[in-house]
């Protein structure tokens, strides 16, 4: 199923599935019961462009905190719950918009029935998350190692539990730290299940390694029309996840109002400290909610030609740089003033 053909679910005011839009999400690293810290982190994620955020809900205190957190933030919330069905019920009653829970892991059938009943009552969808590293023992023994077939088999079991209870507001994820396995299992899942797919490469690592692995796997899937919501998992500040995710979606024309920063790789012609300019401009540019292309070029030889398709650009030299707007040179700027002038021109363009 392509993303426009999946069965849509509604999480708060968001639709996931059944459309071309891919929803950006992340997960808090705070203790949910620490309301102030959690709210602060969610607001930072919102400013970065996050549309949906998940929180670990481990106990009753975490569940109770949901009500107050929802009052102070502006995006839907997901509760990440394992094993204890009572915590799932408490989270739903506290106002959570979606739960992440594997129905096969919460004990007796009557426990699942209770969770499904309350989700029905409050219109709360359920994400079933299949992880290659935590497959059921019999499936792992059957296949000998994590495989796409085994992950699909595991998902079938969990999905059947919900479908047998008449519950279809389901989202699925199939996460692995192996890029090839990740691509294979999501491709198979898109053929087997009608439900929206949550894309992610799990345990991807640092900002560098995660960006590479996630872009490799998820870029393929998104280009194929697979995936309805996405999280780039990075060890560290979750705001970094949103920055990387937005750039990935922009590169595939799946999101608007996202800036594009082009930077020259440099060569022997570079005669100024371009790296310091790029380092200062990157957070400024990527923090904008504007579809604007900014180019920082290393010299005045090829710079003007290479930057002609940018909205605004600077092509630096030893003592000065050429300020280029829409392909036309509009000023010559001393090297020490390049960052300031570039920022000024960008702000003018945004305000126009």
UniProtKB/TrEMBL annotation:
Name the EC number(s): 1.17.7.3
Gene symbol? ispG
Q: Which biological pathway?
A: Isoprenoid biosynthesis; isopentenyl diphosphate biosynthesis via DXP pathway; isopentenyl diphosphate from 1-deoxy-D-xylulose 5-phosphate: step 5/6
Source organism = Dielma fastidiosa
Q: What is this protein called?
A: 4-hydroxy-3-methylbut-2-en-1-yl diphosphate synthase (flavodoxin)
Q: Which HAMAP family is this protein grouped with?
A: IspG (MF_00159)
The organism's place on the tree of life at top rank: Bacteria
Does Signal appear among the keywords? Answer: no
**Family classification:** Belongs to the IspG family.
């Amino acid at each position: 199923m392509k993303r426009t053909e999946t069965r849509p679910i509604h999480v708060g005011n968001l639709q996931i599935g059944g459309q071309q839009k891919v929803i950006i999400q992340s997960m808090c690293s705070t203790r949910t019961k620490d309301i102030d810290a959690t709210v602060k982190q969610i607001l930072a994620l919102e400013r970065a462009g996050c549309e949906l955020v998940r929180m670990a809900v481990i106990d009753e205190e975490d569940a109770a905190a949901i009500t107050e957190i929802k009052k102070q933030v502006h995006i839907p919330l997901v509760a990440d719950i394992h094993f204890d069905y009572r915590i799932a019920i408490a989270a739903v009653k506290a106002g959570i918009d979606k739960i992440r829970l594997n129905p096969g892991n919460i004990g007796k059938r009557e426990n699942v029935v209770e969770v499904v009943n309350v989700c029905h009552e409050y219109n709360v969808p359920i994400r079933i998350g299949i992880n290659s590293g935590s497959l059921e023992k019999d499936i792992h023994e059957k296949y000998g190692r994590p495989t796409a077939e085994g992950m699909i088999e595991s998902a079938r079991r969990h999905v059947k539990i919900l479908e047998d209870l008449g519950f279809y507001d389901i989202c699925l994820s199939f996460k692995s730290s192996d890029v090839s396995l990740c691509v294979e299992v999501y491709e198979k899942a898109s053929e087997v299940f009608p439900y929206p797919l949550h894309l992610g490469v799990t345990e991807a690592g640092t900002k560098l390694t995660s960006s590479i692995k996630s872009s490799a796997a998820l870029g393929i899937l998104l280009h194929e029309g697979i995936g309805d919501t996405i999280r780039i998992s990075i060890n560290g500040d979750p705001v970094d996840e949103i920055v990387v995710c937005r750039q990935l979606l922009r590169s595939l024309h799946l999101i608007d109002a996202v800036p594009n920063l082009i930077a020259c790789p440099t060569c022997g012609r570079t005669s100024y400290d371009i790296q310091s300019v790029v380092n200062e401009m990157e957070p400024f540019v990527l923090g904008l909610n504007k579809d604007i292309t900014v180019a920082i070029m290393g010299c005045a030889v090829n710079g003007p030609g290479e930057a002609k398709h940018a909205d605004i650009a600077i092509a630096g030299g030893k003592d000065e740089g050429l300020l280029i707007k829409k392909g036309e040179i509009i000023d010559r700027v001393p090297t020490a003033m390049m960052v300031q002038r570039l920022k000024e021109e960008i702000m003018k363009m945004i305000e126009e």
